[in-house]
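Journal club side-thread
Mid-discussion, someone asked how the predicted structure for our own chain would compare to the paper's figures. Pasting it here so we can look after the session.
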Amino acid sequence: MSWCFAMVNGKLAKIFFERKKSGKVVMNAHCYVKESEYTTKREKQYIKTDIKKHRFSYRSKSTNVLRFSLENLLKYIFHNLFN
């Protein structure tokens, strides 16, 4: 398993991923970290170069379901109020 730094949802994170034999990259996990945890020049350089290359947006599937159902509920309420 490999890892790198990335910007996930606008925050610094460490992402863990695997490269399959087919060449596909599968992201296994991520964890948010603070830049102040990394103090050496080399670590700071890794952060700088990695976040330029890697930016992700992550949402769990359950929040999407909740967001979409809430969105539909609000549409239904407004539609019935004004019609």
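Post-session note: The first strand starts at residue 2 and ends at 8.
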